Amino acid sequence: VRTLVLVLGDQLDAAAAAFDGCDPARDAIWMAEVAEESTHVWSTKMRTALFLSAMRHFAAERRAAGWTVHYRALDDAENRGTLANELAHAITALRPAGLRLTAPGDWRVLQAIRGAAGAAGVPLHIAPDRHFYCDVRDFAHWARGQSELRLETFYRNLRQRHGVLMEADGPAGGRWNFDTENRAPFGPQGPGATPLPLQIEPDAITREVLALVRTRLADHPGALNGFAWPVTRTQALDALTRFIDERLPAFGQWQDALWPQAPWLWHSQLASALNLKLLSPREVVDAAETAWRAGRAPIAAVEGFIRQILGWREYVRGVYWTQMPRYAGSNALDAHEDLPAFFWTGDAPMPCLADALRQTLDLGYAHHIQRLMVIGLYAQLLGVEPAQVHRWYLAVYVDAVEWVEMPNVLGMSQYADGGLMSSKPYIASGRYIERMSAGSYCSRCAFDPGQRTGPTACPYTRLYWDFMLRHETLLADNSRTRQQVRSLERLEAGERAAIRAESEAWRRTQS
Ligand code: FAD
Ligand code: SF4
After folding, report:
1. Which of 87, 90, 185, 395 measures 20 to 30 Å from 165, CA to CA?
2. Rounded distance between C-alpha atoms, residue 205 and residue 484, angstroms
3. ipTM of the assembly?
4. Which of 93-102, 192-201, 331-340, 410-419 has the lowest mean pLDDT?
5. Do 485 and 368 share a structural domain?
6. Residue 389 falls inside a structural domain
7. Distances in whole angstroms, Cα of residue 247 to Cα of each of 218, 301, 498
8. Which residue has the least CA distance to atom 6 on ligand 2?
9. Is 46 among the domain residues?
């Protein structure tokens, strides 16, 4: 073998830069399924099954295109368990003159592969990841010129540079931001009829993987029933078309709304296909913009959707790669509680949280507001150690890859980076959940979102006030939370003491 092209589980793009200049007649592909990737965090069955099935489909397609693929399956008797060990073995067996790899999404994996190549003395070429609009070096350059990192400036800059949703005289529709039109709560009647979720029938390869995961990973969390995630590029493109036709027009309006047992609503379900590189963000953004130009979706929905991909997705990647490895240890709020055990079972004592957790474990999916303002909010208000929160999120979602998961968890959701990524902690009381779900959870809950003390106090509400008491100085120093923390002035000393004592007592029931 002249060059061995290393393809990781989240690099399933036949046009990736690692393949540049390579020739199936002389070069070969290397891929490995290893236990380490499902056990370094205790990955759900759904997440592992998605990765393995998509990898096996990609390998089959490359073979059909004339490539030799050296593929180590999870259940091979000789499987050495880690990427580093498998790569070391492949280098000894195949004696490649060189290795090529597209820049990986995970700092840990980059170190492992560099280490194995270095130890074997084989040159490793790391090619830039063309999947993204913004190169990490460009991000670092942009970040150096900013007094603080903020999504809005970064996003506007990228829209201008790439001519996305732009008209001759400025942003399409006359504004950069349509947040005020987006993010409505449902009325008391709820969402009504919602579009059907993805329904992709598992083929023979997927069925084999599901059986493997059921036996090999029997003690891993979560379920596998109803596996319907795109595992090939063709399926991912179909999922994109369905989203544009059926969900995009209402995407913005209901982006932040919550409803019991309504996991998908108008969300795209495209994150896993994007993160595995079955889809490129450019084709997703272009499809959304084309729908608006053709009058098939309103500007607010399209801007709201493109902001997530061209904005947030690129932004968090820049944060991750410019801050690692230090970022992983962030704990600016000095939080040290253990993650409650019910995060792994879904048996939370509150219906809003139990619904989001059960759905996560069953489907490998929860939408953004469930992740941020139900699950993440609870962990933050409780004061859970950020590293434990990070490990949970990385384990449970089908779209979880560290470069995107970690800044969302440590930065956006837990404020563990002290404000590097978000301008304020995302904190709210149970009233927020009540409003965004039109009372549908609270009306069937033993707690009251308007109560902050006493036996029927909503745990979110009580812990929200406790959080403000614990971090009063920090919140008062921040112009975006100053007003919020002023409400503490209304609390008598007795009520403050009760909030603190009851919150401590509640914490002791949660581990
Ligand atoms: P939609 O709601 O349809 O959004 C469209 C697309 O925009 C998504 O597919 C995704 O690619 C992108 N997007 C939206 N929000 C973000 C964001 N904040 N950061 C980056 N991309 C975004 N996303 C992941 O891809 N992997 C993760 O591991 C992940 N972990 C998260 C953890 C927390 C605590 C939070 C608050 C958010 C996390 N997100 C993560 C972002 C977001 O919640 C998911 O991308 C989204 O819920 C996936 O569902 P969807 O494809 O239906 O997205
Ligand atoms: Fe959730 Fe509080 Fe409402 Fe109960 S009262 S459903 S805990 S927000």
Report:
1. 185
2. 53
3. 0.99
4. 192-201
5. yes
6. yes
7. 35, 10, 46
8. 442
9. yes
Q: How far is the CA of 383 from the centre of ligand 1 (A)?
A: 23
Give domain status of residue 200, yes or no: no
Residue where a domain stops, chosen among 127, 145, 166: 127
Tell me which residue range forms the domain holding 8: 3-127
Question: For the chain, what's the residue count?
Answer: 511
If one counts the domains in the chain, the total is 3
For residues 81 and 13, the answer to whether their CB atoms sit within 8 Å is: no
User: What percent of the chain lies above the pLDDT cut of 90?
Assistant: 92
Residue 275 amino acid letter: N
Is the CB of residue 164 less than 8 Å from the CB of residue 285?
yes
Q: Are residues 290 and 398 in the same domain?
A: no
Q: Look up the CATH number of the domain holding residue 50.
A: 3.40.50.620
CATH number at residue 400: 1.10.579.10
Ligand 1 atom with least separation from CA of 275: 25
- Ligand 1, atom nearest to 247 Cα: 3
**Do residue 170 and residue 307 come from a single domain?**
yes
| CA angle in degrees (0–180, nearest 5) for 328-423-459 | 80
Distance 110 CA to ligand 1 centre (A): 23
What pLDDT is attached to residue 65?
A: 97
User: Residue 408: inside a domain, yes or no?
Assistant: yes
Q: Please name the residue that has the structure tokens 């891993």.
A: 220
Q: What is the DSSP string of 270-305?
A: -HHHHHTTSS-HHHHHHHHHHHHHTTSS-HHHHHHH
**Gap from CA of 35 to ligand 1 centroid (Å):** 26
- Here the CATH number for the domain that contains residue 260 is 1.25.40.80
